[in-house]
């Protein structure tokens, strides 16, 4: 333990990481550097500075990473149409590589020889943080207090605060019973009644979206403009990536869009039930597939769809910085060269409805696709030979009596 001289801690300013900061100081007799990232969690991050200073922290990093988060992590992932196990839009997973990157960068800047995080020993985040850190800084040491200490309950954490003089806010009113994580892409809920997969989430739990039943009776119509697979404007207004997602979150949330109730397979081996609100991301996925449908070659689109589950698993399991994810991203980004144009959508009571798509790079040819007189653009007689050639192997098998 004496070999650790300085540690960079991913610090939220909450109960867990405040205890971790003091525990690191006492257990490892080391200097602690705190890093607090604003990735759109919707809470003020600046108070973390005062809390860190109260514990004698000298080097304090508080950074607004919202634009980098959306531009360099969320947008590339949505170019892949990534869904984990067919349902999860990877809101927590995609935030971890950025935090891991800044942890090791700050460690290099400050001369620290270790990083630390507040992820528990039962979850996926410990894997994501640490795989990212080792990929970017192979010699870095990682301290995961939840795998070392015995402070495994809120009561023990509060008792530690009392003993060590760590100030804890005594908030009036009821505290949420759920374990929650938020960023600009989503908010997640775990624990309490959600640990029973049969229990319906209570309506009061959802914070970002109205229920579909309570959404407006009139649809909201929007138009998204794409350039190389990324949204660059909404209703004709050019916006930065973070501003795009912020706007879509508001529009979707008002229309009851983006709720998900999932039982997923964690990388560490257990099944876990979680509820998620990903309002803007739900629109992004639907719209991106719509613009790809008219601009992307068939076989390229099908190849992307085949690779997507592998890509999604890599993100979920913490392999963002791996060679295979980077290689897949190169292919995905190349596929987006002609994914340009506009998509019109209706948002209505929990639904995202595509009502139009157009592009100067469209591969849709009305003369070929029409059911009316196609003026010789397509010779329907050619289909007979096409069908017979493709049926040849099945005809031979049938003649041999195979079923």
Brief description of this entry?
This protein has three domains: 6-66 and 90-164, Rossmann fold, CATH 3.40.50; 179-296 and 338-358, Argininosuccinate synthetase, chain A, domain 2 (Alpha-Beta Complex); 366-399, no CATH class.
Explain what this protein looks like in three dimensions.
- By secondary structure, this protein is an alpha/beta fold.
- It has three domains: 6-66 and 90-164, HUPs (Rossmann fold); 179-296 and 338-358, Argininosuccinate synthetase, chain A, domain 2, CATH 3.90.1260.10; 366-399, no CATH class.
- It is 39% helix and 19% strand.
- It has twelve helices and 14 strands.
- It has helices at 15-27, 47-54, 66-79, 96-110, 125-136, 154-164, 241-254, 279-295, 298-317, 323-335, 366-369, 382-399, and strands spanning 6-10, 31-38, 59-64, 114-116, 141-143, 179-182, 187-190, 220-227, 230-234, 237-238, 259-265, 271-277, 341-348, 351-358.
- Strands 3-2-1-4-5 form a five-stranded parallel beta sheet, sandwiched between helices. A five-stranded antiparallel beta sheet has the order 10-9-8-13-14. A four-stranded antiparallel beta sheet has the order 6-7-12-11, with no helix packed on it.
- A hairpin with a 2-residue loop joins strand 8 and strand 9.
- Helix 4 (96-110) packs across helix 5 (125-136).
- The model has no long low-confidence stretch (mean pLDDT 94).
What is the topological layout?
Layout: E1 6-10, H1 15-27, E2 31-38, H2 47-54, E3 59-64, H3 66-79, H4 96-110, E4 114-116, H5 125-136, E5 141-143, H6 154-164, E6 179-182, E7 187-190, E8 220-227, E9 230-234, E10 237-238, H7 241-254, E11 259-265, E12 271-277, H8 279-295, H9 298-317, H10 323-335, E13 341-348, E14 351-358, H11 366-369, H12 382-399
Parallel strand pairs: 1-2, 1-4, 2-3, 4-5
Antiparallel strand pairs: 6-7, 7-12, 8-9, 8-13, 9-10, 11-12, 13-14
Helix pairs in contact: 1-6, 3-7, 4-5, 7-8, 9-10
């Amino acid at each position: 333990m004496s070999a650790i001289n300085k540690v960079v801690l991913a610090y939220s300013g909450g109960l867990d990481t405040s205890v971790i900061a003091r525990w690191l100081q006492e257990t490892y007799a080391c200097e602690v550097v705190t890093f607090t990232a604003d990735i759109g969690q919707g809470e003020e991050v600046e108070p973390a500075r005062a809390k860190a200073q109260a514990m004698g922290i000298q080097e304090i990093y508080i950074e607004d990473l919202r634009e980098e988060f959306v531009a360099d992590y969320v947008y590339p992932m949505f170019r892949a149409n990534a869904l984990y196990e067919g349902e999860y839009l990877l809101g927590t997973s995609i935030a971890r590589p950025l935090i891991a990157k800044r942890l090791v960068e700050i460690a290099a800047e400050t001369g620290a020889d270790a990083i630390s995080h507040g992820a528990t020993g039962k979850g996926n985040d410990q894997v994501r943080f640490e795989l990212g850190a080792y990929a970017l800084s192979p010699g870095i040491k990682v301290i995961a207090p939840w795998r070392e200490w015995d402070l495994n309950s809120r009561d023990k954490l509060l008792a530690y605060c009392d003993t060590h003089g760590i100030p804890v806010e005594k908030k009036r009113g009821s505290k949420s019973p759920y374990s929650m994580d938020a960023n600009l892409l989503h908010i997640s809920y775990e624990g309490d009644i959600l640990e029973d997969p049969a229990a319906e989430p209570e309506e009061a739990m959802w914070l970002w979206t109205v229920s579909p039943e309570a959404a407006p009776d009139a649809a909201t119509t929007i138009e998204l403009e794409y350039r190389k697979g990324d949204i660059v404007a909404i209703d004709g207004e050019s916006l930065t990536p973070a501003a795009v997602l912020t706007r879509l979150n508001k529009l979707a949330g008002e229309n009851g869009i983006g709720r998900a109730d999932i039982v997923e397979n964690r990388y560490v081996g257990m099944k876990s039930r979680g509820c998620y609100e990903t309002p803007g991301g739900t629109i992004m996925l639907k719209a991106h597939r719509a613009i790809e449908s008219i601009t992307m070659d068939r076989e390229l689109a099908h190849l992307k769809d085949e690779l997507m589950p592998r890509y999604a698993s890599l993100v979920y399991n913490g392999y963002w910085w791996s060679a295979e994810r980077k290689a897949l991203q190169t292919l995905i980004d190349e596929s987006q060269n002609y994914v340009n144009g506009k998509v019109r959508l209706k948002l209505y009571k929990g639904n995202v409805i595509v009502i139009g798509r157009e592009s100067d790079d469209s591969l849709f040819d009305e003369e070929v696709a029409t059911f009316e007189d196609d003026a010789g653009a397509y010779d329907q007689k050619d289909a007979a030979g096409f069908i017979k050639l493709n049926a040849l192997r099945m005809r031979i098998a049938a003649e041999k009596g195979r079923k």
